[in-house]
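can u do me a favor
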């Protein structure tokens, strides 16, 4: 997947008030690397995220700041993952007066509350608590551009991972229809229509959920016309990895294990809704005999 990504320049001015600086950590999960954003127009700027401590990032940040004749007043951290926070010490070497903000802050950081506003010349950012990828995850509405900094909830390419599917879906719904403009993701290229992409993400999750239900019910992805007639390969209960082998049959086997974490999340959400049940001992899942069966 990583080979098909469009290359991004290390530093790129994306609008009159946004410069993206790559963190220098490209990879399977970080795509072209973590995006950090310098925001505003005056001598005092906001920064979103700090990368993961690679040496190229402070060098780039320093040269952008001297070119812009600006400093970082406040750094807003989207979430605790190391590829977003490990550059904080580097930032503080360059901008010793910068204040670091994060929801559920670590020592030495300030809290970000849901709805909190951060303002510098040319930019007003409104924070939204949007858990699911992590519990502390925040996104930021950029009012002047009617845009949104999406963190790792919505990426420039592909889909995002999450640790709590129900919370993640609620967060996507909270982010939906907030802006008519761009999305600036935590990884990957700028998203021209953020709301359209968020709607696509919600639809994609619904589709995966439908597929899990379909395989649990009929043993296969395509139900065919004889919906009620069990197919020969029908199993009544399934482990997540067995489901993955059917649902992701066209995906390389090396991706099956990571995919099974997502399927387990789907199963846990469906269980909470009373649609599926699982046997503790065998770890197998089946359609709920008590709940609604659609
Ligand atoms: Zn990330």
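np, heres the sequence
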């Amino acid at each position: 997947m990583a080979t098909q990504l469009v290359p991004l320049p290390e530093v790129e001015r994306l609008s009159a008030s946004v410069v993206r600086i790559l963190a220098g950590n490209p990879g399977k999960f970080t795509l072209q690397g973590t995006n950090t954003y310098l925001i505003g127009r005056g001598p005092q700027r906001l920064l979103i995220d700090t990368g993961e401590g690679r040496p190229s990032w402070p060098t780039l940040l320093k040269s952008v700041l001297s070119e812009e004749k600006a400093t970082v007043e406040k750094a807003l951290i989207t979430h605790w993952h190391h590829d977003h926070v490990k550059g904080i010490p580097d930032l503080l070497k360059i901008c010793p007066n910068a204040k670091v903000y994060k929801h559920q802050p670590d020592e030495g950081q300030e809290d970000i509350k849901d709805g909190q506003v951060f303002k510098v010349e040319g930019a007003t950012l409104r924070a939204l608590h949007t858990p699911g990828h992590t519990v502390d995850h925040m996104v930021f509405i950029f009012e002047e551009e009617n845009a949104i900094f999406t963190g790792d909830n919505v990426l420039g390419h592909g889909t995002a991972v999450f640790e709590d599917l129900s919370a993640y879906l609620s967060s996507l719904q909270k982010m939906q229809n907030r802006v008519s403009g761009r999305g600036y993701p935590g990884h990957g290229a700028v998203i021209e229509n953020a709301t359209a992409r968020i709607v696509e993400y919600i639809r994609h999750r619904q589709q995966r959920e439908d597929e899990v239900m379909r395989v649990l019910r009929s043993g296969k992805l395509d139900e065919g016309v004889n919906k009620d007639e069990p197919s020969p390969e029908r199993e009544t209960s399934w482990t997540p990895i067995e489901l993955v082998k059917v649902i992701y049959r066209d995906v390389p086997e090396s991706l099956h294990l990571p995919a099974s974490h997502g399927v387990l999340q789907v199963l846990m959400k469906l269980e909470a809704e009373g649609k599926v049940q699982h046997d503790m001992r065998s770890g197998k899942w089946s359609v709920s005999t008590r709940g609604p069966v659609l």
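The chain has two domains: 2-192, 205-287. hope that helps!!
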